[in-house]
User: What shape does this take?
Amino acid sequence: MAETKAKTKAKAKASAARPRRAVTMPTGQPLSEILDAHDRWLHNRRGGERAQLAGMDLAGIDLAGVDLRNADMSGTDLSGANLDGTNLSYAVLVGANLRGASLHHATLTNSDLKGVQLASANLTRADLSGANLREGLLTGANLTDAISVIGADLSRSDLRGAILVDAKLINADVTGADMQGCDLTRANLSGATLARCALVDAKLIDANLAGASLRGAKLSGANLRDAKLTGTDLDGADLANADLSEPQPMPQAEIDKIVAAHGLWIASKGGQRAELGGRDLSKLNLSGANLCAADLSDAKLVETDLSGAYLLLADMKGANLTGANLKNANLCGVRLAHGTLVDAVLTGADLSPIDLVGEKKTAKPLKKTADLQDCDMSRIKAEFAKMREANLSYARMSEAELASANLDSARLTGADLSQAVLEEANLTSAELIGVNFSGARLGKANLSHANLTGARTDGADLAGANTAGADMSGVDSEPAAQDSDS
Assistant: This one.
């Protein structure tokens, strides 16, 4: 019985992942039939046949979540395609065009991507372990927080301007790659081969380069502040004008002067905007400080007291707020994408949207919502926090305390809320597609009209929760053990 149920569930998921527009191949066969046959082939069922999509024009296609393991897509045009969550492990994508494609959370383990075009593609949280990207074009690609690029072959690839924040490139071969202006902040490159790489003006702040080879690499103008260089081979490397300094914690007296000058700037009375990007502000007292619209990007705010602080519209992208106190802080319209808030306190914090009114009274106000996508918010304490319409897509919020929090119309697609406490939380009309609620406590939570398509609720407590009008299609509520056996 369990096996039958698992197969039914698998079929439901497969059918839900089919392309949303009808596509017919030059042979006259619908793409949906090819994908069905490929699925049967993968599972050794009768009528199965490996997908042969080489050279096809699939630009802009929606293949999100489709299982395309081992498929042949050599030279296929997938520019602008939606491949979020798609399984492309062991697929052949030699010379494929993936410009501008979205591969968020896609699996590309051991795939053949030689000469692939990935310029401006979104590869955030993708798994590229063992992939062959030799001579690929990744100009401007976003690989932020890539789950794994471990052992990948990126030799002689064009990665100019690519975003690889928090990417895991352990033991990767990046020999001779062009990585000028690349952002590798906090990336793990331990044991990687970066010989003869062009890393001019690259950002390697807090990157792990332990045991890496940078022999003959061009690092002029690169920012290696606080980078880990234990056992790193820099023989013959060009380090002209490179920043190898370690950030020193800012004294309290200095930050007090900066906050005062920032207050005058806000009031248009002179002063100067607080430019604190990349600075170490750990354990400082900024309680009640007015830092609206300040630059705190990539700042280190570990255990900093920001209780009651005004951080409206502040740029805090990539900031480290581990253990910070943000109780009752005003974070309306804040930009905190890819930040770290592990163990932070946000009880009563306000992350509501804010309307920006222009000079013309007739102009429609511009709404700015808080952006916390891809943030690590594990174990945060955010009871009664106001997060209406906040963007929390793919945030890691396991064991978070969000009782009575207001998440009305918030975007939480792909977020991890396993073991989180959401009792009496307001999730009305929230976007909860694919959210992991495993073991979460949602007693008396308001989920009315929320979109829970494909959400996982095994072991979750939904006693008394309001799900009126909610889209529960594809919700997986089976125990985790049974799901893994399927």
Q: What stands out?
A: The mean pLDDT is 87. Strands lie at 354-356, 366-368.
